Amino acid sequence: MRITGADVIVTSPGRNFVTLAITTDDGLTGYGDATLNGRELAVASYLADHVAPLLIGRDAHRIEDTWQYLYRGAYWRRGPVTMAAIAAVDVALWDLKAQVAGLPLYQLLGGASRSGIRAYGHASGRDLPELLDSIRARREQGFRSIRVQSGVPGLETIYGISDAADRRSGDGRHPQPPEEIWDTQAYLRHLPTVFEAVRNEFGPELPLLHDVHHRLTPIQAAKLGKALEPYDLFWLEDCTPAENQDGLRLVRRHTTTPLAIGEVFNSVVDYQTLIREQLIDYVRSAVTHAGGVTAMRKLFDLAAQYQIKSGIHGPTDISPVGMAAGLHLDLAIHNFGIQEFMPHSAQTYEVFPHSYTFRDGYLHPGETPGLGVTVDRAAAARFEYRPAYLPVNRLRDGTVHDW
Ligand code: GCO
Ligand code: MG
Questions:
Q1: Dihedral (C-alpha) 354, 120, 296, 225: value to the nearest 10 degrees?
Q2: To 5 degrees, how large is the angle CA 112–CA 302–CA 220?
Q3: What residue owns the CA closest to ligand 1's atom 10?
Q4: Ligand 1 atom at minimal distance to the Cα of residue 38
Q5: How many structural domains is the chain composed of?
Q6: Where is the Mandelate racemase/muconate lactonizing enzyme C-terminal domain (predicted)?
Q7: What is the rounded distance in angstroms from the CA atom of residue 388 to the CA atom of residue 403?
Q8: Domain match, 227 and 352 both
Q9: Atom of ligand 1 nearest to the CA of 159
């Protein structure tokens, strides 16, 4: 099976997505997600200008070899742009191989290790009543595990809270990065009171998660983890910027709140200290950003030796193609933990017809051979790319802050 084409599809059905379509002389098409939120066109160019010309004529079955060829062959290693491009090729090749086999991808990864994939959804509110309503709404949609994000008194907008910033700008696509003001002390004082109220309302059993979004120093993160222990979180995510892997030793010494890290990582190397020293409990990479199915399997296998589980990143900036790739892995690996899942818009689903389903809190990739996601090229062409930026955080004195 020879590769005859590698097209980059850029589309914006409500938000921007970059998809690689690899075609073969057998007449098959495999898809891979290459979406890097806010920096999409860099990956589109990397693929179209530097990767696609190398793919034509290659044997589409040689997935590992192609991965190594693109990773080692470029000389310049790792980085979000490179690894998203490699991921797109890798996932498209897995899609093709599974289509040829006539099997859903998870069968090629060892078959199902469970009957469904436990998913968590996002709830948020600018204040407590809005947050409690949001949790109720998610539960009605079938979610059995909930990520809880709350506004903080005195802070006008916080990324991820009730999309307050989105309401300001219309559809949430910002032509320039919006700026938000952050106050760590106000957040640290407020957040434990939110979890206390949520536990009082919903009882001890509902699995609750929280995303700190890299905003704390290690000692602040340690303090928060400790303060949240009475509320028994499923995980505390990105409690401190984890490129300082050593910083997690300090957090770990102080708290038993489980820790999840890795959505901004793009290779297993980024996790070496975190995994070997068991400083985290869940690895958060997205298939789309960390080199595809081939690389993610190696990450999960390393993590498994240390009883660390998966928690694949699944916000709506991962396309349905990237989501499906994650679901096949989730179903197959032994050390599955939980999957993040925020349903896409109707427009996005129109562009990406898919076989995966969400029922009663559980996802399933479906039984369609391959990934089970295609691209409706005519629908994709109707939604033109529009530059869209993520926000930037500043402290009250104007200093740029982690977010
Ligand atoms: C999450 C994330 C996302 C990211 C987003 C950036 O846990 O879902 O933190 O909301 O901020 O993917 O593009
Ligand atoms: Mg996150």
A1: 160
A2: 110
A3: 315
A4: 13
A5: 2
A6: 128-258
A7: 17
A8: yes
A9: 11
68 is a domain residue: yes
164 occurs within a structural domain? yes
Helix (H) or strand (E) holding 123: strand 117-125
Which domain range does residue 40 map to? 3-103
- Pocket residues for ligand 1 (CB within 6 Å)? 37, 160, 211, 213, 263, 315, 317, 340, 390
The answer to whether residues 250 and 351 belong to one domain is: yes
Q: What is the pLDDT of residues 51-83, one digit of tens each?
A: 999 999 999 999 999 999 999 999 999 999 999
Could you say which DSSP state residue 269 is in? Answer: G
Mark whether 213 is an active-site residue.
yes
Query: Atom 1 of ligand 1 has which residue's CA nearest to it?
Result: 315
Specify the ligand 1 atom closest to the Cα of 342.
8
Residue 266 has which token pair?
């793009």
Do 323 and 360 sit in the same domain of this protein? Answer: yes
Q: What is the pLDDT of residues 241-265, one digit of tens each?
A: 999 999 999 999 999 999 999 999 9
Looking at the fold, whether 83 and 152 belong to one and the same domain comes out as no
One domain, residues 147 and 258: yes
Q: Are residues 345 and 251 in the same domain?
A: yes
Give pLDDT tens digits for 190-223: 999 999 999 999 999 999 999 999 999 999 999 9
Q: How far is the CA of 315 from the centre of ligand 1 (A)?
A: 6
To the query of whether residue 254 is one of the catalytic residues in this protein, the response is no
The DSSP line for 188-257 is HHHHHHHHHHHHHHH-S-S-EEEE-TT-S-HHHHHHHHHHHGGG--SEEE--S-TTSTTHHHHHHHH--S
- Residue 355 near residue 342, CB atoms below 8 Å: no
Whether residue 152 lies inside any domain: the answer is yes
- Residue closest to 9 by CA, chosen among 294, 383, 266: 383
Torsion 94-339-121-158 (CA) sign = negative
